[in-house]
Amino acid sequence: QVRVVESGGGLVQPGGSLRLSCEAFGSNSVIYNMGWYRQAPGERRGLVAAMHSGGHTEYAEFAKGRFTISRDNAKNTVYLQMNSLKPEDTAVYYCNADLGPPLVLRDYWGQGTQVTVSS
């Protein structure tokens, strides 16, 4: 059983920065893919950024140029550096750990961390 724990959310002014951290506990190997998703009130959860254990990254359009994802494979930890934050970035940010194929039960989620961008 994998447990995913996020930290680093909070209140920040527009134009400010935040760094989110996420650690996955309980895996005996490097996790296949780790990423960040977000969900604002009334909206569906969607991808922010993800990073494969081999280094390949994927970003949502709104995240390109402002957010940077990084990983420490030895610790099964993923980070999200968010710069130039906007009020529309306000959401609950969730960390995902994907253990990869051929597992059927492969996706694990954290409890979410609130990010609020407001003056």
The string of secondary-structure elements, in order, is EEEEEEEEEEE
Write down the overall geometry: globular
Report the helical percentage: under 10%
Beta-strand percentage range: over 45%
Largest sheet: 7 strands, mixed
Mean pLDDT: 96
Question: What Rg do the Cα atoms give?
Answer: 14 Å
Q: Descriptors for this entry?
A:
7-stranded mixed β-sheet, 11 strands, 4-stranded antiparallel β-sheet, mainly beta
Topology:
Elements lengths: L2 E5 L2 E3 L5 E8 L7 E7 L6 E7 L4 E3 L7 E6 L4 E6 L8 E8 L8 E3 L3 E5 L2
Parallel strand pairs: 2-11
Antiparallel strand pairs: 1-3, 3-8, 4-5, 4-9, 5-6, 7-8, 9-10, 9-11
Describe the structure.
It is a single chain. By secondary structure, the chain is mainly beta. Helix content is 0%, strand content 51%. The chain has no helices and 11 strands. The chain has strands spanning 3-7, 10-12, 18-25, 33-39, 46-52, 57-59, 67-72, 77-82, 91-98, 107-109, 113-117. The strands form 2 sheets. Strands 2, 4, 5, 6, 9, 10 and 11 form a 7-stranded mixed beta sheet that branches. It is globular, with a radius of gyration of 14 Å. The mean pLDDT is 96.
TL;DR of this structure?
By secondary structure, this protein is mostly beta strands. The protein has strands spanning 3-7, 10-12, 18-25, 33-39, 46-52, 57-59, 67-72, 77-82, 91-98, 107-109, 113-117. The protein is built from no helices and eleven strands.
